Structures are given as C-alpha cells and as structure tokens.
C-alpha cells in the first residue's frame, strides 16, 4: 500500500493515524497497517516492527512482513541489538551496516545473513512514558540517514500515543473477557448449588460445601464439576456465555 505519511508535519501524521484507526476493525489490524504504512514512508525495501515489553520479555506485537519478525526474534534470542538497547535506554540506536558494526556482533552477524544491512530503533514515548520501540530494517547499508531519522523522530512521537491507546484498549478488552468468564463460571456454580440444594434438601452454604468436597475428591475444578452437574440435569447451563466464556 502507499503510505499516507508523506510529510513530517504534525497534522498530516496525526490525520493519517486517525484514518488508520477508523479504517481498521481490530487492534491487531491497526498495528499491522501502521507498520506497513511506516515502512512505505521509508527508503525502498524498508521493513518495520513494533516491540513492547510484556512482563519482562520483549515481544513483537506487529510487523510489516515476516522477515522483520524473524530479525526481531534474533535480538530476543541473542539478548542484544538496537531494539533492546532502545527499550532499556529510551534512546534511538542506529547501525549503518551490520557487516561492520562492532556492537551487537551476535545479532549483526545473523541479521546480515538474513540480508539486513541497516537498522534503526526508535523509542515510542507517550505522555505516560515509553510504550515500546520501532524496529526499522533495510537491505542496503546507510539507508537511514539524518533526514530519515529526523522524520521518524517526529512520527514516532505521534505514533506512540496511538500505540499506547491500542495497548490500553487491548488490555481493557482482555479484562472484560476475564470478567465475563468469571461471571459465566459463577453462574454455572450457582445453578449447580441450586440443584444440590433441591436434591439434598439443604441450605446453600451446605450445598456449596458438598460441591467443593466433591470437586476435591474428583480432582476437578469446581466450575467444571458444576457444569457437569447442570448438564446432566438440564442439558446445558443457562445464561449468556455459560458454556462459552471468551478466550
């Protein structure tokens, strides 16, 4: 695709990002299109990836192509490279030629074998701090000159906010999925408790205790035992998503 990022001016870059957000249906699609558009704005043959830290591990959350993902993985596996240094320092790191770069020799040797000569890593700094890093690669040496660095520094500052928003929304989506799964499990357990109460003619506290002991004796999660009981009696648990909590 042709890149909308043809000018380093703030409004143009911001408008392009907004257009991507509106035009894409998922966080994953937006981030992928962001890397594709970024690569298209760079010298011919350029590739782009987005790396964030999850837990204590660096992970690529989007890439313009499969080679970018493979080269990113070299950094993670060898424990060195411009991206990792950018994530730890918050500063840009650049090599004009992996064949002669004295730093990151393990990474550069493998990157060169994959056809990558130029590398540029830029921090993505949002108002709340660094949210990740841009990984830029090119098969030609010296592909990322001062003009590219200046333009990309401007864009990275704008893109960081969009990436931070995407990550926040993705985290909220996972939180909502976890909540729905918890509510679904609670619903199934409540139904099973009601069945045990009817069968044993006991109060809810005693019914839950019986259910809990049975789950321990059978080495089953109480939710799974509850679903089994409800299915045996009524065919399937009732309620929205009772048997299909979000992944």
Automatic annotation (TrEMBL):
PROSITE patterns registered for this protein in UniProt: ANTAR (PS50921)
Pfam families in UniProt: ANTAR, GAF_2
Keywords carried by this UniProt record: Kinase, Transcription, Transcription regulation, Transferase
InterPro entries for the chain: ANTAR, CheY-like_superfamily, GAF, GAF-like_dom_sf, GAF_ANTAR, WH-like_DNA-bd_sf
Record-linked Gene3D superfamilies: 3.30.450.40, Winged helix-like DNA-binding domain superfamily/Winged helix DNA-binding domain (1.10.10.10)
Residue span(s) of domain ANTAR: 169-230
Annotated protein name in UniProt: GAF and ANTAR domain-containing protein
């Amino acid at each position: 695709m042709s890149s909308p990022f043809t000018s380093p001016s703030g409004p143009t870059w911001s408008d392009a990002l907004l257009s991507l957000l509106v035009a894409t249906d998922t966080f994953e699609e937006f981030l992928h299109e962001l890397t594709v558009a970024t690569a298209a704005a760079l010298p011919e043959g350029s590739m782009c990836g987005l790396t964030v830290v999850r837990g204590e591990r660096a992970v690529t959350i989007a890439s313009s192509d499969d080679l970018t993902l493979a080269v990113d993985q070299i950094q993670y596996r060898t424990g060195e490279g411009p991206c990792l240094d950018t994530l730890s320092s918050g500063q840009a790191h650049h090599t004009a030629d992996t064949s002669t770069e004295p730093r990151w020799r393990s990474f550069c040797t493998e990157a060169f074998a994959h056809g990558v000569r130029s590398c540029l890593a830029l921090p993505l700094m949002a108002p709340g701090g660094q949210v990740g890093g841009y990984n830029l690669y090119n098969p030609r040496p010296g592909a990322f000159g001062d003009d590219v660095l200046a333009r990309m520094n401007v864009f990275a500052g704008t893109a960081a906010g969009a990436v931070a928003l995407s990550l926040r929304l993705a985290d909220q989506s996972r939180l909502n999925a976890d909540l729905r799964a918890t509510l679904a499990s609670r619903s199934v357990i409540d139904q099973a408790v009601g069945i045990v109460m009817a069968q044993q003619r006991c109060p809810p506290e005693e019914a839950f205790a019986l259910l809990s002991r049975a789950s321990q004796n059978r080495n089953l999660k109480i939710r799974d035992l509850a679903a089994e009981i409800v299915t045996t009696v009524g065919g399937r648990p009732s309620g929205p998503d009772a048997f299909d909590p979000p992944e």
